[in-house]
Predict the 3D structure of the following.
Amino acid sequence: MKKMLLLAAVAGVAFSSCVKNETANGIAASASKITFEPPAVGASTRAVAGEIASSTAYPATEKFKVWGWYHKGDYTTFGDAANGWTIYMAETDGTALEVINQDGTAGTWAPATDHFWPKNGKLTFAAYSPSDAAGTYTHTANGLQIEGFTVAEVGQQYDLLYSDRSYNRVSSTNQYTGPNTEVNIYTGVDIVFHHALSSILFKVGTEDDYTQANIAFKVKSITIKNIVNKGDFNETLTDVPTPITRTPTWTPSAVETDKTDYVAFNDENGFAVPADGTTFSEPAPAGGTANDLILLPQSFVEKDDAVVEIVYTMKTGASNEIEDTASFKLNTATEAEVWQCNKRYTYKIIFGGLEKITFAPVVEDWEDVEVPIEDSDLI
């Protein structure tokens, strides 16, 4: 009667942001304040709820945290004592320092307390966003590590970002030359951000054109079930010798109770599926927006319990709506058996494969019945 197909398409996204420094550990400081320029850069043209769009500047209302390290000459290796390596910009306990937009406009991004450039030597920076992200954050020679991150509930999710190292900086000057430089409306040190999580979208459409047949589908809910929502992150960065390489990796929790369901769409009235066979739309409640998801990267290989469940209805011109439920195992989508950092997965739910109702009329032969009439029956 019906066929449900789910296809996954992958798109990568990157972001860029800027940071600024201060004085510490007895190093002589100049009069120049450390400021940051946090524009968002990358290939994405839209943002899901909680996501920082690549086509717009880093939001003035957002906050991020940064570390700054001093070294006498050009960067050699992380923590190189022979190069005068020391923490220069951080909290007193060594954790990253919060950076804010101080005037709420396209102005200065800096710590609440002014930090100044050293008169001699250079600084290297690394950052993450948002500043109040869940978990414990450290930065070592291997880059950023996060312990105990938990994905927030739907509607409260945020775009967890981690930055490239910004090496050998001596002033609050933007040097970024990548894509979308037009969104760099702030002034300061640029830091390129990457997405640490996976973006999950759903779109619905039909395999064939059903408009003339007067067939209508509605989606009532889309739920991803049994997704791990907790884990630890390791950037796994190598910068010596060049070129710089990284293999960002999540280790999802193995605790069974650290699995949960995420509702991407839910509306009792349903969302009308475009029936022309070519249009695919993202389901959204009337007057609202879809609950696009930003979830923990993880593997679904050999995990049959991770599924997408779709509740939908079908209606012909003469019938009432007929409700049904279909499920799809995430490990059967070869393009997305493993969710990766910095990737957006768009699942297309395709309604189709309907078989036409046809009839095969057969006329049975008459059954012959002989009726004898005798003389005595005659009137």
Notes: The chain has a mean pLDDT of 84.
